[in-house]
Backbone:
């Protein structure tokens, strides 16, 4: 019986409340049994067994009738009647009964709920007090006990009550532990179920996309041929149905991703004009086909480049616009875009989609965002839909920290407004954007291949034979020679013996997948396709793969099912131009639009980038394609992008007024964004930073680079134009196809041959930046001392002091810097300065010419970030010392003062001969 009872207590199929009720009532019944001997009076001997029997009956009955609360209440009433009787008959407070009152309190607290519990608790308290009071004032009503009995009753009651409450707590604890374990296990099971569900959805998507790829691809081939009108009509219907099926799969996949928290928002910089063009191109034609007017109002002040999740914004707007067209039978559909500037580099953009359609009934509005919920079913039964669209839209907008609202008048129309905040990348205004001014697509036109490339040779890798057939057929008109491999292993075998101009690689393949195969190709010993552009073909998910393939280093990716036109654009973008003959009537601008997806395919192999603090002339940066990531300059008015939002002259005026100004390196996220963007231009990025012990820029860049496969960060060990010298050197090497490893090795080596020395006119800024104390600053000012800042082992050190007025300071500084004139490579010198007038600059040049003439001298204004550290009137002489890897900058580019036309004619050529680099005039 006890075993059965314990089994019931731990049986989690029985409700927790019922189990607690059973335990506590059981404990109470045991307590009553032990109270029997107390008082040694007939009434007790009769009353208590009867009460125990009644309790047992109540428990049984209440559980059977499923009215536990009522049962617990009845037992509580019984206890409240029983205990006072026992109290008086067993000897009042000289008996053991007072301890048993505790059991009554516990019973009430555990078994009753809500107000009833509070009422009974108060009743129990009042009753206990009354009993005590009665026993105190009317001792004659209390049965008298001998001292021996009192002692015995009290002792055994305390022990028993203690024991029973401990047993009770022990049981309760065990039940809680078991419940906890159970919850954890259930949570794990739910997670596993979720995982399985996701896996099921993504594999289902993959599995369904593969046959759809075949259907759509082969159907396109049918449509390309000369076929009777009826067959063409059927083929077009197949096309429509396959696309609808595809949308449905994508929606279900998106929803499951959002539900499992796996939907990631990937913010990238994008061109607003291109985004609007793409959206309009997709919707405009649908509206026209339905006889609706399509209106477009785009705020001309929208920045031309923003940073946001372009793919998801497009998805949201297309969904809303599709609905607007779907649920409108006459009138118009309007897309309006408006923006409001929030801060210097952030905007709030409102996208509104308005239609003159059937609208939504007021009572249905709260439900339209529910998944699988279609409202007004009666009216909408002829309109295709699943009720998933708006649910996805709402959740995507929320993931982007935006807002969505709807305003609809039944039978008159609806207006959906989406608000999303985004960072500004390029604040140049978009300008007038209309239906006419957008870049168009040739949608609806009959197929015409865009190019021919009979001498080009490509390889398509896919484990599904049908997919290979589709790709081959879709590209057949281009006359490209196409080889096919059914696995990664076969691909690697073929690339050992044959060079291909491009490779299309399926991602999901058994044994070795597309990504693994791509990396194996890149490092294949003796492989003939190590540097060949590879495009990923994927059937395994939605549109958020872009980042994955970009990070892995692919030249682009194509989501299956692929259309012939897109496939051609992709292949065209990776083929060497000399092998391609563009069709005469292929529209160039249309192809350009599709390159959006394959921006990576046009990438150069290696790009050298740096920070805005590199202090190189714009002409040189432009000439060698050096992009810079801007530092920040912080002033009392806020944080500005170095040289983009704040000019050095403005900053120096600001600081001359005694106000704050200091530089800050880009954050990890800034670098991530910068690298992601640069990886759209190049397959590899080498980023050269300022000396690592001078600024956190290096560490932030290294952290950001961890997110990418192909970004290498190098500490230049210097700052300003001497860091610029490293950058120039690397850019020359990159331009002349030196390998990444060679460049990295040489830039590191060059660190020891570059001379960085700045002389500080006033130590005020150094003091402000916390580099020297206020006392030292006052001393320097009083004695006209000018510290010389050197960079050694990436650290900034004071390498000496000069004294006196400007001319004296310049002379002794120049003499000191050019002390060891024989070791200096005299071909290029940067005189980099902050806030200096013409006269002083001329004087510096004169002194330099006197001590150590250079072939080329660049007068370079320091960037705001550098100027904020060294202050007005400071300058540096930055050059290289002779070394094995000789770079000749002599004809690299003319200094700023040179005629731009002449500069243009000075083309540079780099000759690479056995470890030494020389730039010669073309
Ligand atoms: P679907 O369109 O696939 O049914 P949605 O989630 O996109 O699913 O929309 C949910 C419901 O909201 C639709 O069934 C429709 O009744 C209503 N709805 C959405 N957009 C509009 C609109 N522009 N005009 C009228 N009703 C709309």
Residues:
């Amino acid at each position: 019986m006890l075993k059965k009872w314990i089994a019931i207590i731990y049986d989690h199929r029985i409700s927790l409340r019922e189990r607690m009720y059973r335990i506590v009532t059981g404990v109470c019944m045991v307590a009553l049994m032990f109270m029997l001997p107390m008082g040694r009076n007939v009434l007790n001997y009769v009353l208590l067994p009867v009460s125990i029997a009644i309790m047992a009956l109540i428990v049984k009955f209440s559980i059977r009738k499923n009215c536990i609360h009522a049962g617990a209440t009845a037992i509580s009433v019984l206890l409240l009647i029983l205990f006072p009787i026992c109290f008086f008959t067993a000897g009042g407070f000289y008996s053991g009964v007072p301890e048993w009152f505790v059991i009554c309190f516990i019973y009430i607290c555990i078994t009753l709920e809500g107000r009833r519990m509070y009422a009974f608790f108060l009743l129990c308290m009042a009753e206990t007090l009354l009993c005590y009071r009665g026993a105190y004032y009317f001792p004659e009503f209390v049965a008298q006990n001998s001292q021996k009995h009192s002692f015995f009753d009290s002792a055994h009651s305390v022990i028993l009550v203690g024991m029973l409450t401990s047993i009770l707590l022990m049981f309760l604890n065990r039940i809680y532990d078991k419940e906890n374990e159970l919850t954890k296990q259930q949570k794990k099971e739910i997670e596993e179920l979720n995982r399985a569900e996701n896996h099921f959805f993504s594999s289902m998507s993959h599995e369904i996309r593969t046959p759809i790829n075949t259907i759509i691809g082969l159907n396109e081939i049918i449509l390309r041929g000369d076929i009777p009108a009826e067959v063409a009509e059927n083929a077009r219907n197949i096309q429509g149905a396959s696309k609808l099926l595809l949308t449905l799969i994508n929606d279900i996949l998106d929803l499951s991703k959002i539900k499992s928290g796996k939907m990631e928002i990937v913010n990238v910089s994008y061109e607003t004009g291109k985004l609007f063009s793409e959206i309009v191109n997709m919707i405009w034609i649908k509206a026209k086909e339905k006889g609706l007017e399509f209106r477009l109002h785009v705020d001309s002040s929208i920045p031309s480049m923003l940073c946001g999740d372009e793919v998801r914004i497009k998805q949201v707007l297309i969904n809303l616009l599709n609905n607007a067209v779907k649920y409108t039978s006459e009138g118009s559909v309007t897309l309006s875009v408006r923006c409001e500037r929030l801060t210097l580099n952030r905007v709030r953009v409102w996208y509104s989609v308005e239609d003159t359609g059937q609208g939504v009934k007021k009572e249905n509005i709260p439900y339209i965002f529910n998944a699988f919920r279609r409202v007004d079913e009666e009216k909408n039964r002829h309109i295709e839909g699943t009720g998933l669209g708006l649910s996805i839209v709402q959740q995507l907008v929320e993931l982007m920290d935006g807002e969505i609202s709807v305003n609809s008048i039944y039978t008159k129309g609806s207006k959906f407004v989406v608000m999303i905040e985004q960072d500004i990348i390029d604040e140049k205004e978009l300008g007038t954007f209309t239906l006419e001014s957008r870049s168009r697509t040739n949608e609806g036109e009959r197929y015409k291949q865009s190019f021919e490339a009979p001498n080009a040779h490509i390889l398509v890798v896919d484990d599904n034979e049908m997919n290979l057939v589709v790709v081959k057929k879709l590209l057949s008109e281009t006359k490209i020679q196409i080889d096919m491999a059914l696995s990664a292993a076969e691909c690697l075998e073929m690339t050992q013996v044959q060079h291909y101009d491009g490779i299309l690689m399926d991602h999901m393949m058994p044994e070795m997948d597309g990504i693994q195969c791509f990396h194996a190709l890149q490092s294949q010993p003796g492989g003939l396709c190590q540097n060949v552009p590879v495009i990923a073909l994927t059937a395994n998910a939605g549109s958020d793969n872009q980042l994955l393939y970009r990070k892995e280093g692919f030249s682009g990716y194509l989501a299956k099912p692929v259309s012939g036109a897109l496939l051609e654009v992709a292949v065209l973008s990776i083929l060497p131009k000399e092998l391609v003959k563009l069709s005469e009537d292929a529209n160039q601008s249309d192809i350009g639009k599709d390159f959006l997806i394959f921006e990576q395919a046009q990438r150069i192999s290696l790009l050298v980038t740096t920070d805005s603090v590199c202090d190189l002339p714009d002409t040189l940066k432009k000439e060698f394609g050096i992009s810079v990531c801007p530092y920040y300059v912080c002033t009392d008015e806020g944080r500005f992008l170095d040289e983009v939002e704040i000019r050095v002259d403005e900053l120096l005026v600001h600081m001359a007024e005694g106000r704050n100004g200091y530089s800050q390196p880009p954050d990890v996220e800034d670098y991530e964004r910068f690298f992601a963007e640069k990886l759209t231009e190049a397959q590899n990025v080498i980023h050269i930073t300022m000396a690592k012990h001078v600024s956190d820029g290096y560490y932030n860049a290294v952290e950001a680079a961890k997110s990418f496969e192909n970004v290498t960060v190098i500490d230049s060990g210097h700052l300003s134009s001497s860091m610029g010298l490293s950058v120039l050197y690397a850019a020359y090497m990159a331009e002349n196809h030196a390998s990444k490893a060679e460049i990295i090795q040489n830039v590191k080596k060059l660190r020891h041959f570059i001379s960085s020395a700045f002389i500080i006119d006033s130590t005020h800024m150094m003091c402000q930046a916390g580099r020297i104390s206020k006392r030292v600053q006052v001393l320097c000012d009083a004695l006209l001392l000018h510290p010389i800042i050197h960079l050694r082992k990436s650290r900034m050190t004071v390498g000496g002091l000069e004294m006196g007025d400007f001319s004296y300071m310049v002379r002794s500084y120049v003499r000191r810097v050019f002390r060891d004139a024989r070791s200096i490579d005299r071909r290029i010198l940067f005189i980099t300065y902050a806030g200096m007038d013409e006269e002083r600059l001329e004087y510096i040049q004169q002194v330099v010419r006197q001590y150590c003439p250079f072939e080329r001298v660049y007068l370079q204004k320091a960037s705001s970030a550098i100027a904020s550290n060294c202050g007005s009137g400071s300058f540096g002489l930055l050059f290289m010392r002779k070394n094995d890897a000789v770079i000749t900058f002599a004809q690299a580019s003319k200094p700023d003062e040179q005629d731009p036309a002449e500069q243009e004619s000075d083309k540079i050529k780099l000759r690479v001969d056995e470890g030494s680099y020389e730039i010669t005039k073309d």
Observations:
- Residues 441-445, 587-602, 885-922 have pLDDT under 50 and may be disordered.
- The chain has four domains: 2-187, 264-429, 451-586, 604-918.
- Residues 2-187 form one domain.
- DSSP finds 30 helices and 30 strands in the chain.
